[in-house]
Specification:
Structural class: mainly alpha
Mean pLDDT: 80
Strand content: under 5%
Length: 213
């Protein structure tokens, strides 16, 4: 694999890692699956991550078709998606959970009654594959089939890592502590705001290059 491809893969992986933030999602997962036995918890984790992977893969592959269907431009998507990503990162920097990335409390409470149903919502959508993650996936994969394959592959690797974190979540939270989780969340927030800013810059530059068309 060429050095440029490796750097691109690393950039995509870190972008997804910061956006999905599997470390900070461990306590959320544990809270949603509290009282479940190990087998049910593992099933919820697997189902939610498979669904999240499918969602991101579909938007990565069909991004261009979606643009054409609705008459959208990549520049417009990068600007709007970048603003959305920036907003999520800004909330994380403040130590808050963005409303577009985290379900409301009443949604969580209703989901607890459905056991495996929580794998669909709120876990797969919007916690794991929220609007920001989808926007980032479509932006990462906009350069062609090579970018699509790389984007889907890197998100797949992240899903495997997240699955392991979910399975060993209790031990992980005890090991690193609540304060460390807060620091990690803010670090991820900073990375996300930079990604969002970069997306907006690329979108604006593309509009300028087209003469504002």
């Amino acid at each position: 694999m060429e050095k440029g491809v490796l750097l691109q893969a690393a950039s995509i992986f870190m972008g997804f890692f910061a956006m999905m933030n599997p470390v900070a999602n461990v306590p959320i997962f544990l809270g949603l699956t509290s009282g479940y036995d190990d087998r049910t918890r593992a099933a919820v984790a697997l189902k939610s991550l498979l669904l999240a992977f499918l969602i991101v893969a579909v938007f990565s592959v069909a991004g261009r078709a979606i643009f054409q269907l609705f008459g959208l431009t990549l520049a417009a998507f990068r600007i709007s998606g970048g603003l959305l990503v920036f907003l999520i990162g800004f909330h994380m920097l403040q130590g808050d959970l963005s409303r577009v990335h985290t379900p409301r409390e009443e949604v969580r409470e209703r989901s607890k009654e459905a056991e495996l149903g929580i794998a669909v919502t709120p876990l797969a959508m919007p916690i794991l594959a929220g609007p920001g993650t989808i926007a980032a996936a479509m932006s990462f994969s906009a350069g062609g089939m090579g970018d699509v394959v790389l984007t889907v592959a890197m998100f797949g690797v992240l899903c495997v890592i997240t699955y392991v974190l979910f399975l060993f979540g209790e031990k992980f939270v005890i090991y690193i502590g609540e304060s460390a989780l807060g620091v990690i969340t803010r670090m991820m927030g900073l990375i996300i705001t930079v990604i969002g800013t970069q997306m907006v810059i690329e979108g604006v530059l593309a509009v300028v290059a087209l003469g504002g068309k």
